[in-house]
Design a protein that fits this description.
This protein has three helices and six strands, in the order ααβαβββββ. It is an alpha+beta fold. Strand 5 and strand 6 form a beta hairpin.
Length: about 140
């Protein structure tokens, strides 16, 4: 411990206070002090984001079903999403799963979906919302993970 204190003191006196702050921050990150337990870093996918509460009620309902493991109203819900459009970050096949977001007054599944990635499916690392059948996506924030 004395060696570390001496090293920190030398860095501070030689390079100034900002270097000490950077060193302490790096040490805190290394032992997990700056992020709450279980927190995940948001992906840098360049996509716009959306808050869970800003999504339509039906999307929030679908999200709750995903977290609880179903049952889902459509047989295609939970199937592998191939990411053929390549709008989402690339991952091995099977990483993403798609879920229908009910569209009121629609006679079919409609165009709205949640596409979630990660394992297990009930604890996805990230979810994306599309309202135009995969032409565009917005990454979910909050518990939309």
């Amino acid at each position: 411990m004395n060696l570390m204190v001496g090293t920190m003191h030398q860095e501070r006196s030689a390079a100034g206070f900002p270097r000490l702050v950077r060193w302490l921050a790096a040490a805190a990150i290394g032992i997990g002090m700056l992020a709450p337990a279980g927190a995940r870093e948001a992906p840098d996918d360049g996509l716009p984001t959306v808050e869970l509460q800003a999504l339509p009620k039906q999307a929030r309902e679908t999200h709750a079903l995903i977290l609880s493991g179903g049952p889902f109203p459509y047989s295609k819900d939970g199937t592998v999403f191939g990411n053929r459009e390549r709008l989402l970050p690339r991952h091995p096949r099977g990483h993403y799963r798609e879920y229908t977001v009910r569209t009121p007054r629609s006679k079919n599944r409609g165009a709205r979906r949640l596409v979630c990635g990660g394992t297990p499916p009930t604890r996805p690392a990230v979810c994306y919302y599309t309202e135009d059948h995969y032409a565009s996506f917005r990454r979910g924030l909050n518990r939309l993970l």
